[in-house]
Amino acid sequence: MNDRKGKIKSLEAQAAQILEAKKSVPLRRPIVIEFCGMPKSGKTTSIESLNIFLRRNKIRSTVIAERAAVNKIPNKIDPSFNLWNLTSTLGELLEKRYSEEYDVIILDRGLFDALCWLDWQVVNGYLRVSEREKFANFILSDTLRGTIDIVYLFDVDEKTAIYREHASLLTDKRGSIMREAVLSEYKKSMGRAKKNYGKNFRSVIDIDTTNLDQTNSAFLTTKGVLDEVTNLLVEKIGYFPKTTLSEVVSKYTEETANILGGLQFNARPIVEENEKLKQPIPIAVLKDKNSNRVIIGQKRDESVDKKGPEYRRQILYFGGHTRQEDDLQNDGNIESIFRRCLERELREELNIPVSLDEDLPKIIIQTSNNATSRKHMAVVFVVEVDFSTTKLRPNKVELSTDSKVKTGTIINLDDVEQLKKYKFCDWSKVILKDVFNIDGLPGTEEVYQQELQI
Fold first, then answer.
1. Across-strand partners of 266?
2. Domain shared by 254 and 227, yes or no
3. Of 67, 103, 187, 414, which sees the most CB atoms within 10 A?
């Protein structure tokens, strides 16, 4: 399909599929795309084309504009110029990423671009290597680099870039950056940045526009963005092909990770349909640092299976499926994946930030009283937060804020008689008994008497 109309038709069809899928599976967060690379490589044109396409096809997008044009630092080769661009962009990105107004956020230069310029400044003697490493470590922190889904690295040969620069100008005088020597060095810096830092980002895609027209360039980037939105809607979740854990409750020890084996990922519908696969669900009990109180919640009727264990039951935890994006290090370390999953889920479900540096799960729970339970295992963490400073903003698509027991209700674990008044789900009953040593709640013993199907 090489003709322009054919390409447009295929993109519009994919956009329509995304809109239909969003009706049943809303995006939990926006996709973030960074465009960076050589000046005059067609980056800005591709961004404009992408943004117009998305908005006209009812996919909510926004562009965070390149900051260099409004940067008032006079010397463009000064490291401070690069740092101002980066931090100014970060401020707007972090604000918009947690907004519910957008499906796609487009960065016209951002984190990866800053890494390229840091390399260029070191090579040209404008920045010490030790300083570059400090700035790079900041950029490569999980909190920042984890915001970027795709980096498009645009390239063009130096002569073509300069030709494009002057094609519509009434002068041949060169600017401080638009010189062959400067562009050549920057091109090398782009290559080194990709080699040294590319593996830290989810996806870095090269697009050389030297012999590529604007239509094809725009098509490649728009198709890539639509593919990424589709992947997020049809999320790839984690599973264990099999497990030898045979108890309702297993204490988590140093050997548990080896027993569980390697975590694999596939499209959620495929994993959910296969009853032989076990899906780990990292969950966090939110406990007050200064008392024996915890936060409970309840799922919305529309967000759970009516035959499932959480339907119209109170839950003592928050969390969800591991996703492929949680393996940010790409090393398959399941404990790191569990922690990152929980950090992400608590932001998405409750809008609270937590940091789980070296925390390990307390227990693993497996129940088998229905088809849903048999396919999942709870990986239980206890996360202590200060209730006096913690403000919850529950995700109203998944969590109930208008039921008899509202999400965010605080209960005292010392008041056992009060606990008996709640209709807790099976996992919550096990947590109360095995983590907090609270026994005697109705229905608890029946949970432990289930025969697991391994």
1. 237
2. no
3. 103
d(CA 406, CA 358): 31
172 and 242 both lie in a single domain: no
Indicate whether 310 and 408 sit together in one domain.
Answer: yes
Q: How far is CA 343 from the centre of its chain?
A: 10
Of the residues 233, 250, 270, the one at which a domain ends: 233
- CATH of residue 303's domain is 3.90.79.10
According to the model, what pLDDT value does residue 177 have? Answer: 65
Q: How many CB atoms lie within 10 A of CB 181?
A: 8
The pTM of this model reads 0.80
For 208-220, what is the mean pLDDT? 84
3-state secondary structure 215-260: HHHHHHHHHHHHHHHHHHHCCEEEEECCCCCCCCEEECCCCHHHHH
My answer on whether 344 and 410 are in the same domain is: yes
pLDDT band at 447 (very low <50, low <70, confident <90, very high): confident
Q: Is residue 450 part of a domain?
A: no
d(CA 397, CA 288): 26
Determine phi and psi for 15, rounding to 5 degrees.
Answer: -65, -40
CB 319 within 8 A of CB 284: yes
pLDDT tens digits along 246-304 = 778 889 988 888 888 889 999 888 998 998 899 999 999 999 999 999 999 999 988 88
Lowest mean pLDDT among 196-200, 227-231, 268-272: 227-231
CA atoms within 13 A of residue 57's CA, in its CB half-sphere = 23
Q: Is the pLDDT of residue 172 over 70?
A: no
The tokens describing 290, both together, are 């200064």
Longest Cα–Cα distance of the chain, Å, equals: 85
Long-range contacts of 429-438, Cβ-Cβ distance < 8 Å, separation of 24 or more: 430/248, 430/249, 430/363, 430/365, 430/367, 430/378, 431/285, 431/316, 431/317, 431/363, 431/365, 431/380, 432/316, 434/249, 434/362, 434/363, 435/285, 435/362, 435/363, 435/380, 435/382, 438/413
Q: In 367-450, which residue ranges form alpha helices assigned H by DSSP?
A: 371-374, 416-419, 426-434, 444-448
Q: Are residues 369 and 275 in the same domain?
A: yes
Domain's final residue, options 177, 200, 233 = 233
| 157 and 79 belong to one structural domain | yes
Q: Which single residue is written with the structure tokens 């024996």?
A: 292
What's the pLDDT at 92?
95
Q: Is residue 120 part of a domain?
A: yes
Domain with residue 54: its CATH number is 3.40.50.300
* Cross-strand partners of 382: 285
Q: Is 434 left (phi over 0), alpha (psi -120 to 50) or beta?
A: alpha
- Do the Cβ atoms of 430 and 248 come closer than 8 Å? yes
| Number of domains observed in the structure of the chain | 2
Q: Which residues contact 119 (CB under 8 A, 6 or more apart)?
A: 132, 189, 192, 193, 196
